[in-house]
Write a structure and sequence with these properties.
By secondary structure, the protein is mainly beta. It has a single domain, classed as OB fold (Dihydrolipoamide Acetyltransferase, E2P) (Beta Barrel).
């Protein structure tokens, strides 16, 4: 499972506006979803579209910047540590408010690069002081 411990890089578009909250100790945390799309031709030659969703969590100053400047549809590059189910090594599995079972991957961001102009200001921000696992507000 050592491959899960390395940083992952994704490029995609925000599926919703970021949501910021604060840990009990006062650290800002901003979460947003990123859709990573790929298109290829299937065995029958027809185009196939595939989308994988990631929940991205940013911390501290980076959380404040992402909350202020990112919006639904913005294109971003995110580098971070992959979150996974420690029992299975696969994606996290949870039951949603709708009663359905959902699966997904999460990234604790170390770097977020803004690839589309949102307010024409900040384009890159890295934060090597991401919070520890004990303060992830899920």
């Amino acid at each position: 499972m050592s491959s899960f411990m390395s940083n992952q890089i994704i490029v995609g578009n925000l599926g919703r506006d970021p949501e910021m909250r604060f840990t009990p100790s006062g650290k800002p945390v901003t979460d947003f979803s990123v859709a990573v799309n790929r298109q290829y031709n299937g065995a029958d030659g027809q185009p196939v579209k595939d989308v994988v969703w990631f929940k991205v969590s940013t911390w501290n100053r980076q959380a404040e910047i992402c909350n202020e400047y990112l919006r639904k549809g913005a294109k971003v590059l995110v580098e971070g540590r992959l979150e996974y189910d420690s029992k299975t090594g696969g994606p996290r599995i949870w039951e949603g408010q709708d009663g359905e079972t959902h699966t997904g991957f999460g990234l604790i961001a170390q770097t977020v690069r803004f690839l589309s102009s949102t307010k024409g200001e900040v384009s890159t921000h890295a934060d090597s002081t991401a919070g520890g696992d004990d303060e992830i507000p899920f």
